[in-house]
Amino acid sequence: MAVDYDISPLWSIKGGAGAVYLQKTLLTEARIGPAWRVTLERSRAGTTFHVGYLRTFIPSFGFGGAVQSQDVGVGFRTALFHKQHLYLDASSVFRDNQPLTGNGVIADPVTGLVEQLPLRSLRTHTALGWEPQRWVRFEIFYSVVQQTSLRAGGYLDRNRVGFQIVTSKPLRMQ
């Protein structure tokens, strides 16, 4: 179920709720749990700001098991120099993944016990772009991903800088 509501001409709120069903695997029991999302958005004169929260359950395909995931995100997009074709787009998301069971990813070679670790991530993405047509954008971007499993040696820090061409063709379905 999803609901979008315009609070005013500038502000809107969007939300959704449902249930997630995870099938039984060799490592986990079958589970059903609530999932929801909520986003508050402000739009004015080519500038959009949003902040949101998401809670859901995600199967861990690589190692078995499942995690409860919670995301808090914030972002904005604005036209530069009062030109709609030039823009700045930036966002950040903090994600906290907690294992639902003690089974999963780290195997102790002595005891053979397997432990799934929590994972915390911070992702930021900034793009400076030019959109000459609706179907093509040229962007210079900078992305940062920082993750930790809250264990010694379990920290990842990745920085990416690049240029990308984004294309899409609008499609009308009848």
Outline the structure in words.
The protein is an all-beta fold and 174 residues long. It has one domain. 0% of the residues lie in helices and 70% in strands. It has no helices and 11 strands. It has a 9-stranded antiparallel sheet with strand order 1-2-3-4-5-6-9-10-11, with no helix packed on it. Strands 7-8 form a two-stranded antiparallel ribbon. A hairpin with a 6-residue loop joins strand 4 and strand 5. About 4% of the residues have low confidence.
Mean pLDDT: 85
Instruction: Enumerate the strands of the largest sheet in spatial order, edge to edge or round the barrel.
Output: 1-2-3-4-5-6-9-10-11
Number of domains: 1
Low-confidence stretches: 102-108
| Structural shape | globular
Q: Share of helix among residues?
A: under 10%
**What is the terminal separation in angstroms?**
25 Å
H/E order of the elements?
A: EEEEEEEEEEE
Oligomer: single chain
Biggest sheet architecture: 9 strands, antiparallel
Strand coverage percent: over 45%
Could you tell me the number of beta strands?
Answer: 11
Number of helices: 0
**Structural class of the helix and strand makeup?**
mainly beta
